[in-house]
Amino acid sequence: MQKILRAIVLSLGAVCVVAYPTYAISGVVLTDSQIELIRSTCQTAQVNLNTLHTNDAVLRVNLGERYLNIARRLMAPMNSRIALNGLDGVALAQTAVSYNEGYQSFSTAYATYQTSLETAINIDCRAQPVEFYQAIEKARADRGDVAYVVEQMYTLGVQYRTQLDEFAKNISATGTQQ
Amino acid sequence: MNDKHSIAAQLKDLDAETLPWYRRNLVMLIIAAVVFAIALTSLSLHLYSTSTASQLDLSRPGYESVRAAIEKNDIKDFSATGVITGETIDQFDTLYDAQVTKTQSTQLSSDALSDEALGLPSIGN
Fold first, then answer.
1. pLDDT (0 to 100) of residue A157
2. Which end of chain B has fewer CB atoms within 10 angstroms, the N or the C?
3. Is some CB atom of chain B closer than 8 A to the CB atom of A51?
4. Is A96 on the interface with B (CB under 8 A)?
């Protein structure tokens, strides 16, 4: 009986030693074999991260430029023109303010994402594979935040357009159109 | 000869007493100028890297291949003055739609950082 118990305890111990996950990263469990795989492939991943970093920089510049163009060269003059004509453009002005605030959020979110990506690129991934994977997970989350802000900005842009259509209908209906 | 030496020595003593330190000690002046320049350069580099300016600067090395992808700023300004008519709103809509459509970016998909895209073993996604 004692032999059977000893065998069971030893077997359970062996299972725990072999199968026990080494690290857990934000819900993802890394085993020793996965860590080894990361270690062996991480340098290729860093090259890919570097390419993504470069391409995203262009995306940041182009998107930022478009947002500023919309806010400063289209929304702001239109709101001024509405105000100068003594018409009610409060809703449009509010959306324009939200749009400007959204641009600041975009800038901040992108800066955070960029920092996360640079951390993953600069880490010694062969020596620190777990930290490297953690940095990638962080970059994924931060990229998601940037994507969310970009989506919000588009929604605000469409909202302004809808409000302008409504405004156009109102001025033509009330005959305040000059 | 001795007189000449003594006059020169007297002039040197006079300089030492009347001239400010930076005229008496040129070497110190140069060192101070170099230290000041290094401090200002370090400060400006720090500001450059900590602000978002560095992210917008694609003239840095490593970005040569993507510079051509930067879009030209070809938007026409909408006038802030004048009457508002259906025609002006239509003009605005044309300019506006062209810009807003471009902000619908699908290039920020999460796939770009997936294990597969990075060449890593499939672990978390």
1. 96
2. N
3. no
4. no
Q: Using alpha carbons, select from B93, B33, B98 the residue that is nearest to residue A164.
A: B93
Q: Is B104 on the interface with A (CB under 8 A)?
A: yes
Instruction: Give the length of chain A.
Output: 178
Q: What is the mean pLDDT of residues A83-101?
A: 95
| Probe site for chain A from B74, B83, B100 (most A CB atoms < 10 A) | B100
Beta carbons of B124 and A42 less than 8 Å apart: no
Q: How far is CA B28 from CA A13, B18, B31, B42, in A?
A: 73, 17, 5, 21
Any idea which of A20-24, A115-119, A140-144, B114-118 has the lowest mean pLDDT? Answer: A20-24
Query: Would you tell me which residues 15-54 of chain B have a C-beta closer than 8 angstroms to some C-beta of chain A?
Result: 52
Nearest Cα neighbor of A159 from A79, A98, A87 is A98
Given a cut of 80, is residue B31 above it in pLDDT?
Answer: yes
Domain boundaries, chain A: 21-174
Q: B117 — contact with chain A (CB < 8 Å)?
A: yes
Q: What is the ipTM of this complex?
A: 0.75
**pLDDT higher than 90, residue A7:** no
Q: CB of A49 within 8 A of CB of B118?
A: yes
**Between the CA of residue A119 and those of A102, A122, B5, what are the distances in Å?**
26, 5, 68
Q: Does the pLDDT value for residue A22 go beyond 60?
A: no
B96 SS3 class: helix
Residue A53 — pLDDT band, cuts 50, 70, 90? very high
> How many residue pairs bridge chain A and chain B with CB atoms within 8 Å of each other?
155
Query: Which of A57, A70, A177 has its CB closest to that of B85?
Result: A177
User: Are the CB atoms for B13 and B19 separated by under 8 Å?
Assistant: no
